[in-house]
Amino acid sequence: NIGKRKWEREVLEAAKEAGIPIRIGVNIIACPTCGRLVGDLFTVVEEVEEAVARQDFDKNLDVALMGCAVNGPGEAEGADLGVSLGRGRAHFFKHGEVVDTIPEDEIVDTVLEAIENWDEDEEPPGDGAAAEKDEADAAETTGVTKPDLPPS
Q1: What's the confidence (pLDDT) of residue 36?
Q2: Distance separating alpha carbons of residues 55 and 81, to the nearest angstrom
Q3: Radius of gyration of the chain (CA)
Q4: The domain that contains 98 carries what CATH number?
Q5: Nearest to 32 by CA among 45, 22, 19, 20
Q6: Total domain count, the chain
Q7: What is the secondary structure of 93-137 as a DSSP string?
Q8: pTM for the structure as a whole
Q9: How far apart are CA 88 and CA 38, in angstroms?
Q10: What does the pLDDT read at residue 128?
Q11: Fewer Cβ atoms within 10 A, N terminus or C terminus of the chain?
Q12: Considering the domain boundaries, does residue 120 fall inside one?
């Protein structure tokens, strides 16, 4: 993501110098939903979209809103920020790594605060070492575990 962000900043700067108007903003990525959907994702997406539109952030980042903690972080690993719903709470993640578990009623405020404080130069975690912990937390949050698959 950092390489992508550097490239984006260079393109935006070149466009600005050339007098080409380019709009930047927060890109909301919403889960298509499946049988694992937990909570009211549709309301969360609507509330976050409306709140982001009201704030008109001058930031260029992707925010993923996912319906479960089992597949959510993996599906949105390319996003800068994200939320994966659980039962009454949600995992909040940056750069695909879970950084906090928050109450469901704090999702919108948490996302807005994270966007406001977003540092485009922040380095993402290196090796994804927290993946096992994330999977265990997801199972605890949703009560669902990933099945063991035979080797391919």
Answers
A1: 83
A2: 17
A3: 16
A4: 3.30.413.10
A5: 45
A6: 1
A7: EETTEEEEEEEGGGHHHHHHHHHHT--TTPPPPSS-TTHHHHHHH
A8: 0.67
A9: 9
A10: 45
A11: C
A12: yes
